[in-house]
Amino acid sequence: MEHIVHVLIGDLSGAADAAIKTSALFFTAAILLRFTERRTLAEFAPFDWIAAVAAGAIVGRAATATDTSWLSATVALVCLLLAHAVLTRLRFVPWMRRFVDPPLKVLIRDGQVDRRNLRRCGLTAADLQAVLRQHGHDSADGVHLAIFEAKGAISVLCADARK
User: Fold this and answer.
1) I need a surface site. Which of 19, 22, 157, 163 has the fewest CB within 10 A?
2) Which residues cross the membrane (predicted)?
3) Which of 8-17, 89-98, 141-150, 153-162 comes out lowest in average pLDDT?
C-alpha cells in the first residue's frame, strides 16, 4: 500500500521542485518569446507550428524531469528559437522560400474547379463550397480565382474584380 501511495503522490520535495522548475521555465519561455518576431496564429506557417509544439515539449518534459535542469531546458529553448528566427529570415531567399513554404494551388480558375488541386490540398468539394459561401458566392461561376494560400487560407477573387 505504501508503494501505491508513493507512486500516486510521490514526495513533497519532488513536487515542490517540479512547481519551482515549471514556474521558472514558464517565465523563461515567456521572456524568450517576447524577443521573437510577432506573428498571429492566422499567419503561422508549418514551421511556426513545429517551433511552438517543440517549445511546449521542451517546457513540458523538463518541468517534471529530474535529470533535466532549468539551464538545459533554457539552452534548448534558446537554440530552438534561434533556429526558428534563422529559418524565418531565410524565407526571404527565393530558393529557400520554395523549400520552406508550400506552393500556392489554384482551386478555381474562371469558374472551373480544379478537382486535382482540390484533392492535393486535402479538400472536398463541400469544403470549397463552404469557403465560397463565406466569401458571398453560391457557386464557382462568378469566381475568377480561388487560391489555396501557403498558410492554408483560401483567397477568392471575383470575376468582376479583374478590372
Assistant:
1) 163
2) 18-35, 47-64, 70-88
3) 153-162
- Angle at which helices 70-90 and 12-34 cross, to 10°: 20
Average pLDDT over residues 61-88: 94
Residues of the chain with CATH 3.30.240.20: 105-162
Helix (H, G, I), strand (E, B) or coil at 106: strand
Q: Confidence band (pLDDT; 50, 70, 90) for 42?
A: low
Assess whether pLDDT exceeds 90 at residue 41: no
CATH C-level class of 105-162: alpha beta
What is the pTM (predicted TM-score) of this model? 0.72
Q: Where are the beta strands (DSSP E) in the chain?
A: 105-109, 112-113, 143-148, 154-158
